[in-house]
Design brief:
Distance between the termini: 17 Å
CATH superfamily: Copper homeostasis (CutC) domain
Number of domains: 1
CATH class: Alpha Beta
Number of helices: 8
């Protein structure tokens, strides 16, 4: 990366149309659309996907994760995921976010083959199940590349991307899939993270919880202060992103 370099692409995870619109207005470059972000993100409803695609002009990647819990998936889980992938592909989503592990903590190659095939024509991100791998992660990068996965979401195996920046730098040096640095992205450390790892893309949550709301639990709203602060820090260091 040069002394100034290119500002990394900023992907923002949201769970509502309102948060997607707010993230776009704040300057995000891509939307990851989910439901249940408090559970790590689950597949958004058909209505949420359709309305987000209709409303925002940014590329939308949809999380395809049928349930919370372990990333070891059964035949029923995979059938649901393939059906959801086909649905979002047909509705014009730019990409999808998936992940599947074996009980031994390795990439579930058979599952990924079917998911990649169904997602033909879309970008495919392997989500942070990657950080639960038991196998060497550089070998896993080569395996995902061979399978046709285009991105990997990772904190470098640490609680935050800043804490895992050494491993993230090693992953970035693999070339492909593209590494999307994720986990605890904040304005105070994001520039050092990008400089240290040379990550081309970063990912942060675009929502926060507030509440209780009318006795029905906590509500999710757009976390614009955090997003704007991260974007301002990046723009100050690297200049606005070139499209």
């Amino acid at each position: 990366m040069t002394a100034r370099g290119q500002r990394p692409l900023v992907e923002v995870a949201v769970d509502s149309v309102e948060a997607a619109v707010a993230a776009e207005a704040a300057g995000a470059d891509r939307i990851e659309l989910c439901q249940a972000l408090e559970l790590g993100g689950l597949t958004p409803s058909a209505g949420l996907i359709e309305e987000a695609l209709r409303t925002v002009g940014l590329p939308v990647f949809a999380m395809i994760r049928p349930r919370p819990g372990p990333f070891v998936l059964g035949p029923g889980d995979l059938a649901v995921m393939r059906a959801d992938l086909a649905r979002i592909r047909d509705r014009g989503a730019a990409g999808a976010v998936v992940g599947a592990l074996t009980a031994q903590g390795t990439i579930d190659r058979d599952a990924l083959v079917g998911l990649v095939e169904t997602a033909a024509g879309m970008d495919l991100t392997f989500h942070r199940a990657f950080d639960s791998l038991a196998a060497p992660v550089t070998a896993a990068m080569a395996e995902l590349r061979a399978l046709g996965v285009t991105r990997v979401l990772s904190s470098g195996g640490a609680a935050t991307a800043s804490g895992g920046r050494g491993q993230l730098a090693s992953l970035v040096r693999c070339g492909t899939p593209i590494v999307v640095a994720a986990g605890g992205i904040v304005a105070e450390t994001v520039v050092d993270l990008v400089r240290t790892t040379e990550a081309r893309e970063i990912h942060l949550s675009g929502v926060m919880t507030v509440g209780p709301s009318a006795g029905f639990g906590r509500a999710s709203v757009a976390n614009l202060p955090r997003l704007r602060a991260v974007l301002a820090a990046l723009d100050a260091e690297f200049g606005p992103r070139s499209i």
